[in-house]
Amino acid sequence: MSMEEAEYHSKDFEWDELRQEIETDPSMRFHMLPQLDNNSTYTNSSSDCSSPSEESEAWNIFHARHATGKFFKERRYLLKEFPELMSSDEQLNVLEVGCGNGSTALPILSGNKSISVYACDCSSEALERAKEVIEDSSAGSLTNRFHPFIWDFSMNNRFPSCLPSPVDFVTLIFTLSAVPLHRMPTAIASCFSVLKPGGLLLFRDYGLYDMTMLRFGPDKKLGFREYLRSDGTHSYYFCLETARDLFTRAGFDEVELEYCCIKSVNRRNCKTMKRVWIHGKFQKPK
Ligand SMILES: C[S@@+](CC[C@H](N)C(=O)[O-])C[C@H]1O[C@@H](n2cnc3c(N)ncnc32)[C@H](O)[C@@H]1O
Q1: Could you give the CA distance from residue 141 to residue 143 in angstroms, rounded to a whole number?
Q2: Quick one: which of 11, 78, 154, 259 has the fewest CB in 10 Å?
Q3: Burial environment of residue 151 by CB neighbours within 10 A (0 to 12, 13 to 18, 19 or more)
């Protein structure tokens, strides 16, 4: 099975078994503890002092560094995970939040000709990469249905002026984890404000105890389940309860929420990697 196929909804192991394994392993204990401050005492709050502009700059550097097509990975499985994007011939508008290099925007645009994708990112470099990817697509001319704009959705929840009207769908794919936890309520309120009543927010992101979380050392911890990558970008790991709490407090109704647990084998060292993602659909009440 290819990784691409594996990412689609499979369940190779039970998340609760992984949780037990990790939570009883003494070498993993620091992941469960509240944050260590500089005086080596534990606190509950994030010690991260980065500003939104520093975070955007870290993403600018990331996207400039990964400017080649090699890094681009089209998320084709998304249309299987979120079939509602394909289920209608009506003209629909999607807002892809944190569009990066267009990995999510491209399959949506090429999968449904009736959809227009508005795509925002806080990084101007990301938007340049996404424009290139959409312009170069072999799926025909997609540019007239692609509308990129710069927007940091975690700063305030005002309706962005680049959107002509509320949208039918918001896609939030591996973006919320990049926002510091204390700004997530504002970020989700922004998503709520741009959706039509009855509109759906489609969510996929890193799940608690994903292999990439367990690779961080204690020095990379910013807060509880929050980490700083060496390139300065953030990563938060969601459990179902935190995701549920964040979205329902913002006014959303939960439609689907589950872990997606995949085993894949690293070809170089033959080690099994346990990947955990969180998959969710949330609806703005009608
Ligand atoms: C891991 S990439 C995901 C890209 C894309 N959604 C996909 O499916 O591949 C995360 C993106 O979120 C963007 N981002 C991070 N924080 C953001 C914020 N506060 N507002 C808007 N975009 C943000 C980053 O610049 C980056 O391009």
Answers
A1: 6
A2: 11
A3: buried
The alpha carbon dihedral of 135, 136, 142, 146 has a sign of negative
Q: Which residue has the tokens 């503890």?
A: 33
Q: Cα of 54 to ligand 1 centre, how many Å? A: 14
Domains of the chain: 3-25+54-65+72-283 (3.40.50.150)
Residue pair 68/57 in contact by the 8 Å Cβ criterion = no
What's the CA gap between 200 and 281, in Å, rounded? Answer: 7
Ligand 1: lining residues by beta carbon, under 6 Å: 59, 75, 98-100, 103-104, 120-123, 126, 152-154, 173-175, 178-179
Distance set, CA 28 to CA 23, 216, 279 (Å):
7, 10, 25
**Distance between CA atoms of 55 and 173, rounded to whole angstroms?**
18
131-189 pLDDT, tens digit per residue, is: 999 999 887 789 999 999 999 999 987 899 999 999 999 999 999 999 999 999 999 99
Instruction: Name the closest-CA residue to atom 15, ligand 1.
Output: 178
